[in-house]
Amino acid sequence: MADNKSLARAKNNKEDEFYTKITDIEKELKHYRGYFKGKTIFCNCDDPEYSNFWRYFQLNFYEFGLKKLISTHYKAGEQSYKMEIVATDHQQQIGIPDYVKTPLQGDGDFSSPECVEILKEADIIITNPPFSLFINYIELLIQYEKKFILIADTDKLHYKEIFPLLQNNKMWLGYNYGDMEFVVPSYYQPRETRYREENGVKYRSRGNICWITNLDIPKRHENLLLYKTYNEEEYPKYINFDAIEVRKYAEIPIDYYGLMGVPDSFLQRHNPEQFEIIGLAESDLGVSIGISANLTKEEMKALKAENPSFRRGNPIYRDRSGNLKKPYARVIIKRKVSDTE
Ligand SMILES: C[S@@+](CC[C@H](N)C(=O)[O-])C[C@H]1O[C@@H](n2cnc3c(N)ncnc32)[C@H](O)[C@@H]1O
Questions:
Q1: Tens of pLDDT, residues 105-158
Q2: CA 254 to CA 30: how far, in whole Å?
Q3: How much distance in Å is there from the Cα of 253 to the middle of ligand 1?
Q4: Among 21, 57, 74, which is best to mutate for testing ligand 1, by the most ligand atoms less than 8 A from CB?
């Protein structure tokens, strides 16, 4: 749940304003349309007067056969509002449906009692929540056992509160992954990179963006097709954990059945029938699966000098020249062996 400290932090954090483009919304949500019929969709952390999530569902309200669409606007510390569209039997099921705009009692904070009441009523929560409050946001959805489709920053998936949800198949990655461009407010400062302006609108792109959901999608059942075989040279063993290093998830050896460390981009292709996620090789999560800093003082010194980012819980290996290497953000996985294999 959002505590007072983190909410206060977000209220002061102007870097939470990243508005999603309708093309990106369409590119992802087209895969879930079978879930929308007869459902109440809630887009919180939004501004329905400008939001493309609202626009997308308002325009397609009849097409999807929605029961209800609700969106709440967040206006830190001030009274805010919600907008709603409700399906009625006598309505002509064509065109763009009318909405009702009503004031909220509070500022539209997603964890406020009135917004939680709407959340409880909703079938599916769909939004791009504030990046700074992602953990609190997910915890709320899990607490109320909600179905969701959300935009997330992949770095947040490494948090000890979040990663176990992926590991235990409580949520998974959606279809789109990587760079995404967002509209930002006019008061955001221009940047040298990942920034552009067009017709007076400011855009910023962020890397490592993904969609996460707990709605079942066909992609989650597609096996990754593998084309490499194991050999000791290409796949060195970690010196502090009984697993091999795999540099790219596409290069997972087809004939290796022990533990493997793969880049976290693997998560976008994970099929729980093909692989089991054992854990994340980072800090406490890494330590909890037995990754130790099993090194002499000299080795530790050499490693830190070469890789200042080395932390406990990280796996390490020696490259072909004998140098110690710490790979970035490894997920530890294991092949599942089916009866027919
Ligand atoms: C990443 S932006 C996305 C906005 C919109 N959902 C979209 O995709 O275009 C996250 C939004 O969450 C809002 N926000 C920040 N803290 C919030 C809170 N405690 N409760 C609800 N919304 C919040 C921010 O003001 C911001 O507009």
A1: 999 999 999 999 999 999 999 999 999 999 999 999 999 999 999 999 999 999
A2: 33
A3: 42
A4: 74
